[in-house]
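In the design runs reported in the main text, the only information available to the sequence generator was the tokenized backbone. The following block is the verbatim input for one such run; it is reproduced so that readers can re-run the procedure and compare outputs position by position.
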């Protein structure tokens, strides 16, 4: 089992920045890809970004491209999602997710491809 704990959410005005962090613990000896998803009221869960075990591959959703950076530190078992130029439509609960992988560079983009999930952290962007 892998446990994931998110932090760094909060309230910010449009145009501001936030950095979300996710710390993994438990059975983390295998390779695993990390991803971020978000869930806004009345909407389906949406992939935001993901980063491979190697860190060489990362994917960002079109809705956030150019405004985010995802990084990871395997030694610290953490992954960060820096979000800039935030918009009110970015308001959502953000979830960290992980899945054990055989490929160092694979980044899945669908929620059903991830096995482990954090509890979520709220991000609220005001106009």
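Verbatim output:
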């Amino acid at each position: 089992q892998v446990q994931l704990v998110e932090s760094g959410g909060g309230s910010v005005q449009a145009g501001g920045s936030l950095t979300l962090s996710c710390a993994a613990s438990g059975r983390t000896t295998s390779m695993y890809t990390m991803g971020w998803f978000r869930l806004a009221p009345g909407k389906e869960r949406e992939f935001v970004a993901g980063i491979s075990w190697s860190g060489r591959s990362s994917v960002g959703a079109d809705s956030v491209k150019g405004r985010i950076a995802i990084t990871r530190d395997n030694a610290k078992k953490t992954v960060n999602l820096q979000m800039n130029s935030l918009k009110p439509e970015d308001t959502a609960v953000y979830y960290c997710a992980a899945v054990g992988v055989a490929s160092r560079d694979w980044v899945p983009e669908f929620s059903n491809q991830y096995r482990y999930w954090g509890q979520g952290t709220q991000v609220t962007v005001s106009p």
